[in-house]
Design brief:
The structure holds two protein chains of two kinds. By secondary structure, chain A is mainly α. Chain A contains nine helices and no strands. In chain B, α7 links the parallel β7 and β8. The chains are: A mainly alpha, B alpha/beta. At the A-B interface, α8 and α9 of A face α3, β6 and α4 of B.
């Protein structure tokens, strides 16, 4: 883990409800703004990371799988003209520009919620979601899901290492199945643990 | 005569989709100030027994349940988890599966916040519990940065913070080194001296021989023996494929 929770930056100290509202506004603005504005939003995202004293590149490095989310659609976009669904079959200058902008746009879209999860405790995420009228059960599910990303990442890395040690190089099933199994096991034990600590998802 | 903390009457439990009973006809009672060690081979029903003590089975763990379990005189079937958690806490075998908060403080306060304890009060209680397990300097740290032993101590601190009268532990030191195991058991000893009921499943007979006041041996979902620490040297332990306490084993083989 990054140990970011130790930091007492303005982003860490900001009220979770305000943070959630700003996150929603920021993401909607990104989605509805023209793609040409993507570098501005990305610069703002880097600024948020800097203010929260969390190394953006360290976050990217420690969550490599997340990088696939902006990377794959952007690679596809390189091969298409803007506004065209016809496969170009070659690298086009317009495609490269579009793909790059798209990559920056998606990076910003993916890593801003990650920053939110890294600077907000699950209980605060849950309270903030409940403040915005989300049912307690769903608010809690979302808050736990936010912080479970790093667990899945870690489990995937360990599984890849274990499979490589057995001579398995590129077998998605050999990696996916143990990771899924571990995730389900963790979800089950976590639910038992929370129940034994008095958590009732349907309580007011 | 001390009041019964937990009473199990003729408990049987079968997991969904399985034919064989995980527990069969278990009748036991545990008093305050007792340190009970539950020992048995893998799959003998130790963890299921703990889960019946705090209502996880059958409330959360689905299966066919029969019999009656009581917690401080109340029928567990009629109690909700918030009420059960006030009287009985549980520490699971792998702390990695139960810790999910971003700071040790938040993790330990989680149970109290669920009970509706005001945040400031819950955090103060969490701080005290963390201090007791010797991790005060890690109070604001991310639990995933801690060692296995420290994580297990955080899990125990969660139980301490709730100040429940009974604590159930499922192989609490299985992933710890010798020194950490000793520290955890010393902490459990202190809780027993405070009058709390400690029930721990364990494979390490040496630890049980030093700390437990009562031993329950389980096999195939049944209680095979219930008695003092002398049970560990009765020969039954070896018969079940478990290792008797090291010193005593040496004496037996000479």
């Amino acid at each position: 883990m990054l140990g970011c929770v130790k930091k007492k930056s303005p982003v860490h100290l900001l009220d979770a409800r305000a943070k959630l509202a700003l996150l929603a506004i920021f993401m909607l603005a990104q989605i509805f703004a023209p793609l040409a504005y993507a570098p501005l939003f990305f610069a703002a995202t880097l600024g948020f990371f800097a203010v929260s004293r969390i190394d953006f590149f360290e976050v990217v490095k420690s969550r490599k799988a997340l990088l696939l989310l902006p990377l794959l659609p952007s690679l596809l976009r390189v091969l298409f003209e803007k506004g065209s669904v016809e496969f170009a079959g070659m690298l086009l200058p317009a495609g490269i520009v579009n793909g790059s902008l798209n990559f920056i746009f998606l990076c910003s879209l993916v890593y801003t919620p990650v920053l939110f999860a890294l600077t907000t405790a699950p209980s605060q995420i849950s309270s903030a979601l409940r403040f915005y009228r989300m049912p307690r059960r769903w608010a809690f599910i979302f808050s736990v899901a936010f912080v479970s990303v790093h667990y899945i990442q870690r489990k995937a890395e360990r599984t890849i290492a274990a499979q490589r040690a057995r001579g398995c190089k590129r077998n998605a099933f050999a990696i996916m199945l143990p990771v899924l199994h571990a995730c389900f096991r963790r979800a089950r034990t976590l639910s038992y643990s929370m129940a034994s600590r008095g958590f009732d998802p349907d309580s007011p | 005569m001390q009041k019964k903390a937990i009473r199990l009457h003729n408990i049987s439990f079968t997991y969904v989709g399985r034919q064989q009973k995980a527990l069969e006809g278990i009748s036991l009672s545990f008093r305050g100030g007792e340190f009970v060690g539950i020992i048995g081979p893998v799959g003998s029903g130790k963890t299921t027994l703990l889960c019946c003590c705090n209502g996880l089975a059958p409330k959360e763990i689905r299966g066919k349940f029969s019999g009656k379990a009581e917690l401080f005189g109340k029928d567990i079937a009629k109690m909700g988890f918030p009420e059960i958690s006030r009287a009985c806490s549980m520490v699971f075998q792998d702390p990695n599966d139960q810790i999910f908060n971003l700071t040790v403080e938040e993790e330990v306060a989680f149970g109290l916040l669920n009970r509706g304890v005001p945040r400031e009060q819950a955090l103060a209680a969490a701080r005290k519990a963390v201090e007791r397990v010797g991790l005060l300097e890690r109070l604001h740290d991310d639990p995933s940065d801690l060692s296995s032993g420290q994580k297990q101590k955080v899990a125990i601190a969660c139980a301490l913070a709730s100040d429940s009268k009974a604590i159930l532990l499922d192989e609490p030191v299985s992933s710890l080194d010798w020194r950490s195991s000793q520290e955890v058991y010393a902490l459990l000893d202190a809780l027993v001296h405070e009058g709390k009921t400690v029930i721990a499943t364990e494979q390490d007979t040496c630890l049980l021989s030093k700390h437990a006041t009562r031993i329950i041996v389980m096999d195939e979902g049944r209680v095979k023996k219930d008695g003092g620490v002398e049970v560990l040297t009765s020969g039954l332990i070896e018969k079940l494929g478990l290792r008797p306490p090291a010193g005593m084993a040496c004496l037996n083989t000479r």
